[in-house]
Amino acid sequence: MFLRISLYAVLLFTAVSCKRESVSNNNTEALSGTWRINYYWDQKDETSNFAAYNFMFNSGGVLMAHGSSGSTITGTWSETTTKFTINFGSDPILSDLNGEWMKTERTGTVLKLKDDNPSQDDQLHFIKN
């Protein structure tokens, strides 16, 4: 009987401590409007590669990049409490943004991300237009 109670206690503790991060694409209020990249570091400053783009984080995880030439590239985004994921597929320029990023700051006007790999120093900063 004592063994059974101990087993239940361990299972309950494990269930409570194994909290899963929830994905939230419904929180588009704070990401409403258009955004631009004001800093991108990948072994060197590559911010200028994205100067022609404005980004819209739409509901349902749709990420739109509008180029100054009138082109629109569609990708996806999602987030958890600590991570932010971007995927533009194989687009020659925007695929550099693909990946799972760690959120370092997220407000209504700033989204700062860094590579989730500690051995990398990549950084991606969006600012609201």
From TrEMBL:
PROSITE patterns: PROKAR_LIPOPROTEIN. It comes from the Bacteria. This is Lipocalin-like protein. It comes from Lacibacter cauensis.
